């Protein structure tokens, strides 16, 4: 009994430190400047002014739309390209696939941050600066995604593949009608990862865009911070809440998938 | 003939993947090496080989040496603390209690929040006069701290923010590791009369060591590659106190246009990440307890 009480106290204190800052940011986003100066806990008269002003200072709706477009495109691309590659590594017995797989794994050792200078030049030469392609194409496939799906395909029963082959099922048909449908959970995990990590990416869009028409919301947040910091906090908090809400909701609803995906990709793999 | 056909088919499936990885990972890492030995003009035009010039100027650049120093300090501030705290969170959230799912969700929340949003929120919390942290500390009589604007505090503050932002990923990995440990082990330990702490240090931690090892690598690499929080919280300042290596590369390349010099820094980043990963693999292999 005593142990239970202590555990609950520890859980509540930890939850407070993890999440109270987010809740307080939500509260501040509805405050007036006066409330912020008085360090109020809750807005004395809740107002949407912070949100309204944020949307006049930056094209908030445009940025949100851009982020959605980019994140959804990357997500769809990763589902197909990563699964195609993983499928080949597991089911197509061609010469040299071991070498190629090791080559794929070795790309995990290259930090994306160490390649930004030539990548910027590549995008420049392709004429892709300030375009959606620049923000979508480079992450349409990730070695992590291929690895994750390969681990899953390896667990599919061999008998199923043998039976399908006997019935004259082609590779592509097997990929479409068996491999993909039997991987819904792991594909769900990959989709959530792809969406959240694209939505949240920061360095790449920062160096790729100078134009509001293609900029994602994270860069919009930086613009709000640079123009507004230390003078009008409700605006900055409103921008933050808008930037974090879609992915936080996805995380809450998809946590089960994420945990399964992360664990099968890392710990067990 | 069949082999050729299979090979062609395999290539067809793998072509998009290797095209993208080739263009945006393999090629640029080689190109970074080339840039680091070259005089690079605007637009990435290579105008002659300069040998080790960029690397030598790295060694004599106080700004870069400082950046290297603060990056390692930053790792030291963030990695152990993140691991200890998130392990603690995983242990308490793994107990069979009513409502533990809700706590698990809250502890995972940072995974769904962008670094930019968390940083913008903490920017307010760290504010010297209006910020929540100083308000709370002032309540118990602690004088005002210049969290982000004092060179003595800034790196620590950015590290604190990074720990908070990194807890969720580690929490999920640790929780998964804990749930993989068989119940039977605990039951037989209970029969033997082992207490709570005994079970924690004799069963849980040793069996968790593969996860612990993996998590350490991820954390080191993540900390070493931090960028977003620096850009939003301090922009590398004050007086370069938080000029972490990725920020330094970004500044050198995209603000000052020194592509060659920035590439030499990027190669240093690449090599450090590589060496740490390999060392940890070697050491980890020997120390880790496998089930």
UniProtKB/TrEMBL annotation, chain A:
It comes from Lentibacillus kapialis. GO terms for biological process: transmembrane transport. It is a multi-pass membrane protein. The chain crosses the membrane at residues 68-92, 99-117, 132-153, 174-196, 233-255. CDD domains: TM_PBP2. It is found in: Cell membrane. PANTHER family: ABC TRANSPORTER PERMEASE PROTEIN MG189-RELATED-RELATED (PTHR43744), SN-GLYCEROL-3-PHOSPHATE TRANSPORT SYSTEM PERMEASE PROTEIN UGPE (PTHR43744:SF8). Belongs to the binding-protein-dependent transport system permease family. The lineage of its organism: Bacteria, Bacillati, Bacillota, Bacilli, Bacillales. Keywords: Cell membrane, Membrane, Transmembrane, Transmembrane helix, Transport. Pfam families: BPD_transp_1. Gene3D superfamilies: MetI-like. GO terms for cellular component: plasma membrane. Residues 64-254 form the ABC transmembrane type-1 domain. InterPro entries: MetI-like, MetI-like_sf. This is Glycerol-3-phosphate ABC transporter permease. Its main location: membrane. It comes from the Bacteria.
